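Person: Please comment on this record:
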Amino acid sequence: MPIAITRPVSPRMYACELTHLERQLINIALAEKQHEEYEDALRKLGCEIVRAPELPFYPDSVFVEDCAFVVDELAIITRPGSERRRDETISMAEVLEDYRTLHFIESPGLLDGGDVLRVGRRIWVGLSGRSNSAALKQIQAILTPHGYTVTGVPLTGCLHLKSAVTQAGPDILLLNPDWVNPDIFEDFDFIETHPEEPGAANALLTGETVIFPADFPHTALRLAEAGIELLLVDNSEVIKAEGGVTCCSVIF
């Protein structure tokens, strides 16, 4: 059974870090309700929910994906690009040490897990405002001996690599071509986000189903027309915090 590590919404989520979005009022009660429904969606798709300890004074702490990246052989504990988020990794390491051997990104490396996209044994790392080439080299050193190919990816106009591209099927990527160059991803078919929904490239493939925000109906229609099975969730408050459906869990 797949395990999905999640963390409760912080009551201070309204003070989240923002880079590309204007600050909007976040309804904490609604965010908590939506997060519970998100966990229910994961359960429906066969995941066991394991909750990391609540961190009420860390506004972005629900975004556990930024703290760790897990493959079959090991887990990498990140060093987030935002200094005020780095202590969030401590409790994630404590949870993950029961399941995997841990490796840690070290200074001067900076890495947010939202910048790591894995499809099989191919891994791409976004070179964003939160992740750098020093971390990329460390990931290559850790994972190449295990048979992974690790490639750096330049980004434009978005927070993380998974803001621009995610996996939507065995050989299908959902992608915003204004934020990342499709030519980087060889041997894949692409579904582009609808022009009116530039933030809609973040999808969470779990088994054969994609968890996707109901907040992006035009892109959801494109996915459905391509034959992709969707499980729609309300994600409005996470979107205001510059997050997505991949951000709120670490699945392995």
About this structure: DSSP finds six helices and 15 strands in the chain. Helices lie at 28-44, 88-96, 133-143, 161-164, 217-225, 236-240. The radius of gyration is 17 Å. The domain at 3-39+46-251 is CATH 3.75.10.10 (L-arginine/glycine Amidinotransferase; Chain A).
